[in-house]
Amino acid sequence: MDCLREIEGKQAHDPIFIEKMSKLSLPSSLPRCVYFPGSLIVGAGPSGLAAAACLKDKGVPSVVLERSNCIASLWQLKTYDRLHLHLPKQFCELPLMGFPTHFLTYPTKQQFVDYLESYARRFDIRPRFDETVSRAEYDSTIGFWRVTSVGLKGKKTEYVCRWLVVATGENAEAVVPEIEGMREFGGDIRHTSLYKSGEEFRGKRVLVVGCGNSGMEVCLDLCNHNAKPSLVVRDTVHVLPREMLGRSTFGLSMWLLKWLPMRLVDRLLLIVSWLMIGDTTRFGLDRPRLGPLQLKNLSGKTPVLDVGTLAKIKSGDIKVRPSIKRLKRHAVEFVNGKTENFDAIIFATGYKSNVPSWLKERKMFSEKDGYPRRPFPNGWKGECGLYAVGFTKRGLLGTSMDALRIAEDIQRCWKQESKHHYFWHQSSSP
Ligand SMILES: Cc1cc2nc3c(=O)[nH]c(=O)nc-3n(C[C@H](O)[C@H](O)[C@H](O)COP(=O)(O)OP(=O)(O)OC[C@H]3O[C@@H](n4cnc5c(N)ncnc54)[C@H](O)[C@@H]3O)c2cc1C
Ligand SMILES: NC(=O)c1ccc[n+]([C@@H]2O[C@H](COP(=O)([O-])OP(=O)(O)OC[C@H]3O[C@@H](n4cnc5c(N)ncnc54)[C@H](OP(=O)(O)O)[C@@H]3O)[C@@H](O)[C@H]2O)c1
Predict the structure, then answer these.
(1) What does the sequence similarity comment in the record state about its family (predicted)?
(2) Whose CA is nearest to atom 14 of ligand 1?
(3) For atom 41 of ligand 2, which residue has the closest CA?
(4) What ranges make up the beta strands (E) of 88-131?
(5) Whose atoms come closest to the Cα of 42: which ligand?
(6) Mutation test residue for ligand 1: of 78, 128, 132, 171, the one with most atoms within 8 Å of CB
(7) Where does 99-195 show beta strands of DSSP type E?
(8) Which residues line ligand 2 at a C-beta cut-off of 6 Å?
(9) 345: nearest Cα among 199, 217, 173, 218
(10) To test the ligand 2 pocket, which listed residue (231, 234, 298, 335) has its Cβ within 8 A of the most ligand atoms?
(11) Which among 32, 44, 233, 347 would be 20 to 30 A from 79, CA to CA?
């Protein structure tokens, strides 16, 4: 590997090699080719921004490619109005810049977006918007990554770079299950990524499918707008109060884990939850056999942090229903044989990574789920200058840890290949 790095380092400032690369600038019908002597980051969400800021802090240039027309597109374009961070702000800060002190403990979506905007300004991160990465492959003959992006009107650009940082997120694409009769259903069907507010569902019977944090919160929002929501719960789920014993449940868990084994912390969390919210099984929400932290650790399944939905389930304002068997024109048949009429269906069935669709690499990333094969904390680094930020199943806390590690690692190589700096100052940015 070191030998490979040395060759690559030499190539990067070898005039013959550079001339060869520039000849890759092909006729206009073929992709424009840009050689970039730093890191190329795919995705301008919190993870991409954090990686770019940490690299900048280490003196390594980077370019960020983003498929949409703004930073943090998940937060700006695909989340509902009432959203707040569900972890206290100290667990959601990106590296090198904290939240302003006047922010709420659980910042609103707008506060979080404002923070990310000022973060990008502070580190002078200017992503190249409307560029969707459609392919990235390591070219071992030249020792660089070739990354193809498709811009507006289908304009293709090929970037040739030394380091590739994948920051496209765990929530890149909405997951919508295929259900019998879906095309027959006459009402509105949408995924939570297209849900903004319960306002447009006022007075309507709405079936929300999936009881993760999105499904639970959307149900609450629908209730608050006088809609009539029902919630499909197909499996067991851990619902915990967002706060317990005067602290955030997440903060308390982190603190307890310093002293106690995970199994014991799980026990404590479940006892306190039981005292605070009672036995959730009574309302149709059976708990998994494993405790919330163990389950998260083993399967990545996030516990639901309750912000008021459970009270609405208890009061009967939100009805719990089993899995769907099939959809009809204006009705839903459930697996228990019962049928009910609905005006709309909202799929809160989660998201998936899109990495396998564009990254031609199978060693670091699993083709099956688009996550790094090596679990946290070892999933951030692959081979030949490939990195992943934000695939830890640990939210923004995991993002920060990845970004710091990646920047340190790339800086080490960058220093070894220090003449890059000279080349960087000589060449114009892409
Ligand atoms: C409703 C909701 C609430 C959440 N709340 C919290 C919370 O409170 N705390 C927490 O820690 N986490 C939360 N999360 C998890 C969330 O994933 C992280 O907060 C954060 O957004 C992850 O950042 P990211 O940059 O890794 O991914 P994203 O925010 O998804 O950003 C990835 C970016 O990559 C871009 N992209 C994707 N594919 C391509 C491509 N091929 N080419 C170019 N660009 C591409 C996308 O457009 C996007 O802008 C929440 C998630 C959801 C859905
Ligand atoms: N306030 C906040 O900060 C906030 C709000 C919302 C979301 N989030 C975060 O955003 C991420 C995504 O959350 P999410 O709730 O959108 O997705 P999620 O956590 O993946 O939950 C999806 C839910 O849909 C269920 N489901 C999937 N397919 C189904 C089907 N065919 N029929 C019935 N149920 C089905 C799943 O059940 P199974 O478990 O049985 O698969 C699961 O309960 C998570 O990290 C979450 O914590 C945070």
Answers:
(1) Belongs to the FMO family.
(2) 395
(3) 235
(4) none
(5) 1
(6) 171
(7) 132-139, 144-150, 156-166, 173-174, 188-191
(8) 83-86, 171, 177, 192, 209-215, 217, 232, 234-235, 301-302, 323, 348-351
(9) 218
(10) 234
(11) 233
Tokens matching residue 224: 């608050």
Record the pTM. Answer: 0.92
Cis peptide before 377 (omega within 30 of 0): yes
Domains of the chain: 9-172+353-428 (3.50.50.60), 176-350 (3.50.50.60)
The ligand that comes nearest to the alpha carbon of residue 305 is 2
CB-based burial label for 405 (10 Å; 0-12, 13-18, 19+): middle
